[in-house]
Amino acid sequence: MLANKILNNNFISSTDKDGHEIVIMGKGLGWQMKPGDPVDPEKIEKIFRMDTVTSSEKMKKLFLEVEMSSVEISSKIIQFAQETTQVELNKNIILTLTDHIDFAIERYNKGIPLKNDFKLWIQKMFNEEFSVGLYALEIIQETLGIQMPEDEAAHIAMHIINAQLDGNMAHTDEITNLLSMCFHIIELKTGKIISEKSWAYERFMRHLLALAQRIIARTENIAVNDSLNLAIQSQFPLEHDISIAIRNYIQKTFNFMIADDEVTFLTIHINRLLQDV
After folding, report:
1. Where is each PRD domain found (predicted)?
2. Per residue in 128-140, pLDDT tens?
3. What does CATH list as the number for 68-167?
4. Which CATH code of 2.30.24.10, 3.55.40.10, 1.10.287.110, 1.20.1250.20 fits the domain covering 5-52?
């Protein structure tokens, strides 16, 4: 195996036996190397392969910007996640998870809070993925000697969840923001604090997560009877008004107009949610 390009002391690009570009990680691997030099197999710690040229270019750029420890930590988390969930994660997760962890560490060191308002829900609804997040905190502590809060475990769990759901980790923050804003709109319109302990809350969160996936995938909604839409609107005017506000937020933020049937489903969920307040 020969070096194609020396990215820095710890990363070089090469080509595998099938002619696909790979990025090789190893402490001091690129020191004093030149393009065309053979790669010392004993210095190889990890080999990264992406599916597209674009992804490969993004990976090379990212690895030049982040700490090597962030890449190492992410690699261990991903391997543990695949073993724990028995699900093959999208390869792009190495990009966004590494970027997230590198930034999270920077924020932690600067004393910026790493709060996650959905920690309890994620822990309850996605226990396996949350356990991956807790494992990640252990790896971070072992590697860097810092103890991050469990809120960060929830952030990492969301990356694992999203990698399984749509394979595009660039949308993790969008999903989290959508969930947060929906509840903010409900509480703003009603003046009530939503309980996270009810079954209605869990069902609503599942519905919102599925809605977020449809928005990202730009898929059509399934139509229901117009008479049902009108009946629900008439029976639950406050909840319907809240659903319209959520629809307006989604249209403005994601440039995606949800159909009347989705507004109806949101109205029903919100009505059940408010009954448990």
Report:
1. 65-170, 171-277
2. 999 999 999 999 9
3. 1.10.1790.10
4. 2.30.24.10
